[in-house]
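Why should sequence recovery work at all? Because a backbone constrains its sequence more than one might expect. Tight turns favour small or flexible residues, buried strands favour hydrophobic ones, and helices have their own preferences. The token representation captures these environments compactly. In the example below, the structure is given first.
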């Protein structure tokens, strides 16, 4: 009798403990169960317990699933409770993904699945911002306002510099959002296209007359390929005329040519001076040879006297010829001096 009483007490205690556990569980998840049942989210008590054991926030998952169901996203085959839990465990931002899908559905121009949105979110991109950019295009300044240069400087074929500011309207390309280039690439490519379009223009007046030719030329190059954006339009906000780069280059070239000519002239002058000094040295050398040859004349005359080939009369006759020659030279020199005066 006593044993039956003890067994009844044990079973009664276990039943009371079980009821307390059930009461605690229902008290903890009662509001979530009511919300799930009333909205048709399809999350039961077993799902909530599984989330707790897996250390998943059941409140966040339930409210995210309710938000998706209320927005009509239950038609997405990939949007299941387990898929939402898996994205949460992967470190994803579940509410942000659900809100982005709701925004894409409401816009009715973007087909965004849960798998695609989750992949973009795990890649580190703000999926909600990307969807908003797809719906409402963003305007990017080219060059960027925080950049070092206030404008894009390009030179037409006539040498005139043009300073251009442009505004690029882009929308997010969800298909290229993972692995696609960012805004910096768009700005760089558009700047390169504008500089190339101006450089191919015959005169700067053509660009000032039709600024839209720059936009058409840049858009035709498909600069948004392999980027996370799609270029909607490129608008030229401002064009200013800068310096005459062509004239400056010609002036610099002329100055360089002048310096080269001066250097060549200086080289020729130095060569002429060197040649003159060589000629002077040659004259002095010839004079020395002449003096040396004149010094041999008396010796030759002495030898002629000894050999009897030259007589005294011949010697005096030679002296007279020399004196006559010197006199004629003196007279000619005095006449030239008088005529000069």
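From this structural description, the recovered sequence reads:
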């Amino acid at each position: 009798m006593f044993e039956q009483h003890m067994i009844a007490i044990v079973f009664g205690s276990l039943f009371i403990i079980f009821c307390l556990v059930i009461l605690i569980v229902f008290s903890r998840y009662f509001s979530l169960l009511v919300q799930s049942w009333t909205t048709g989210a399809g999350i039961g008590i077993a799902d909530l317990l599984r989330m707790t054991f897996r250390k998943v926030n059941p409140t966040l998952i339930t409210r995210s699933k309710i938000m998706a169901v209320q927005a009509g996203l239950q038609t997405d085959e990939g949007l299941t409770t387990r898929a939402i839990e898996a994205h949460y465990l992967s470190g994803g931002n579940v509410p942000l993904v659900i809100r982005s899908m709701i925004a894409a559905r409401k816009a009715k121009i973007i087909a965004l699945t849960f798998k695609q949105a989750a992949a973009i979110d795990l890649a580190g991109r703000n999926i909600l911002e990307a969807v908003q950019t797809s719906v409402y295009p963003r305007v990017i300044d080219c060059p960027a306002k925080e950049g070092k240069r206030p404008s894009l400087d390009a030179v037409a074929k006539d040498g005139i510099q043009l300073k251009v500011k442009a505004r690029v309207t882009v929308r997010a390309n969800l298909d290229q959002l993972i692995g696609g280039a960012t805004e910096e690439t768009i700005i760089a490519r558009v700047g390169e296209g504008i500089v190339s379009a101006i450089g191919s223009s015959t005169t700067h007046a053509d660009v000032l007359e039709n600024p839209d030719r720059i936009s058409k030329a840049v858009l035709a190059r498909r600069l948004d390929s392999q980027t996370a954006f799609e270029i909607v339009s490129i608008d030229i906000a401002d064009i200013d005329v800068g310096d005459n780069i062509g004239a400056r280059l010609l002036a610099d070239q002329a100055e360089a040519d002048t310096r080269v000519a001066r250097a060549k002239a200086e080289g020729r002058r130095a060569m002429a001076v060197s040649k003159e000094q060589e000629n002077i040295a040659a004259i002095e050398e010839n004079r020395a040879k002449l003096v040396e040859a004149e010094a041999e004349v008396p010796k030759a005359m002495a030898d002629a006297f000894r050999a009897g080939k030259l007589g005294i009369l011949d010697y005096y006759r030679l002296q007279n010829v020399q004196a006559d020659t010197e006199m004629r030279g003196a007279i000619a020199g005095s006449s030239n001096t008088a005529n000069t005066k």
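A few observations help interpret the result. The two ends are 173 Å apart (CA to CA).
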